[in-house]
Write a structure and sequence with these properties.
The complex is a heterodimer of chains A (114) and B (109).
Chain A lengths: L3 E4 L2 E4 L5 E7 L5 E7 L5 E9 L2 E4 L6 E3 L9 E3 L8 E8 L9 E2 L3 E5 L1
Parallel strand pairs in A: 2-11
Antiparallel strand pairs in A: 1-3, 3-8, 4-5, 4-9, 5-6, 7-8, 9-10, 9-11
Chain B lengths: L2 E3 L3 E5 L4 E8 L5 E7 L6 E6 L3 E5 L2 E6 L4 E6 L8 E8 L5 E3 L3 E6 L1
Parallel strand pairs in B: 2-11
Antiparallel strand pairs in B: 1-3, 3-8, 4-5, 4-9, 6-7, 7-8, 9-10, 9-11
The chains are: A mainly beta (114), B mainly beta (109).
Amino acid sequence: NAGVTQTPKFQVLKTGQSMTLQCAQDMNHEYMSWYRQDPGMGLRLIHYSVGAGITDQGEVPNGYNVSRSTTEDFPLRLLLAAPSQTSVYFCASSYSSGDTGELFFGEGSRLTVL
Amino acid sequence: GQSLEQPSEVTAVEGAIVQINCTYQTSGFYGLSWYQQHDGGAPTFLSYNALDGLEETGRFSSFLSRSDSYGYLLLQELQMKDSASYFCAANSGYSTLTFGKGTMLLVSP
C-alpha cells in the first residue's frame, strides 16, 4: 500500500548541477503532476501528465523537464540547478475519471541549491 | 491567470467552530478542493465541491458558490490535532490545481 513514493527525500546541489527527482505510484492513476512549495506560498504546478507519453507545462515549468514513459513513473529533471530552485517538491497522482480534485501526494523531496 | 485568496492565519480554541474563507479568480473552473498540511508533511485531501452547496465529511464541511466565486471550509468540534495549514485549490481540469497561499490554523486548549 505504498501510494506515491518520492526519492530522494533530501538533496543538496551546487549551482549548475543537474539531478532527477523520482516519483512512482502504484494506484494505476492516469494523472500525475509535480508541484513546488516555497515558504509562505501555496503549491505551484510545474508539469503534469494525463497519461503515458503525454506531458504539459504548468504554472512554473522553466528549468524543469519531465517525461512519462510508463503509467507508474513521472520523474522531474532539473537541468541546471539554480538557488531559486531551492524548494520542497511534491509529486501527486489522481484518478482520471470524475476529476474529483483529489490528489494523492508523496511525502516530498527537499532540495537545497547552493 | 488564476488566483485564490484566503486568510493567512486563524486562531480558535478546542471545541469551537472555525470557518476558513476562500475567494477565487480563475478561468476554466471545475471545482474547489481543500487540503490539510501539517508542518513538514504532505498535503492531504479533505473535500471537493464541483457544484454549489454544502458537502459534509464528518467534522469538516465545505461550501461553494460559483456565482460569488467563493467557498469556505468549516471545521467543527476543533481538536488540537487540527492545528495545521489549510489550502483551498481551484481545479482547472485534469486535476491540475491552483492553490491559495494557505491558512494557518492554531488551536489552543
